[in-house]
Amino acid sequence: xxxxxxxxxxxxxxxxxxxxxxxxxxxxxxxxxxxxxxxxxxxxxxxxxxxxxxxxxxxxxxxxxxxxxxxxxxxxxxxxxxxxxxxxxxxxxxxxxxxxxxxxxxxxxxxxxxxxxxxxxxxxxxxxxxxxxxxxxxxxxxxxxxxxxxxxxxxxxxxxxxxxxxxxxxxxxxxxxxxxxxxxxxxxxxxxxxxxxxxxxxxxxxxxx
Length: 209
What we know:
Blueprint: E1 5-9, E2 14-21, E3 24-28, H1 34-40, E4 45-49, H2 55-58, H3 61-68, E5 72-74, H4 79-83, E6 104-105, E7 113-118, E8 121-127, E9 136-140, E10 145-149, E11 152-153, E12 156-157, H5 167-178, E13 186-189, E14 195-196, H6 197-203
Parallel strand pairs: 3-4, 4-5, 5-6, 10-13
Antiparallel strand pairs: 1-2, 2-3, 7-8, 8-9, 9-10, 11-12, 13-14
């Protein structure tokens, strides 16, 4: 069973996950400080996958791409934030975040799912808007894990009161794509500790609505 290495960085304690592949790791999300930690530990990133485009998840993306010459994957609906993170100044972010100009879009039907192969590993990607327009959850059946970004947490769900947010879309996507996964599927969220699909189905108060 593969267990990701977890890095937590930035003022919002945002999680990044490193999954081992041949020659390095696939990195999911890029909070502040991750690029320096990767250098310090001499870890090679083969690909960076963004669950969504919010500043705390894409902060070190450009630095990582510069250091590792790796592709940066994102859903097209969130690409504008990653290409022009100056927009986050409207939300009180005063630091300058480097933009990523070379992006690779993850192709997935609107609110649907699609296979996603990266660095030789086969994932299934789910488009679940509601926290952001381009929110993605990435599932690996063989490893029994899903990385949902800020869509689903232990005991919670993502905020829907941000620009592009929708409570209806968020809940519909969680029920359609995530709660139908096996109960033993491990969930590694964008903030906080890990959980399982079964635990959330049983005890998450937001899912009891």
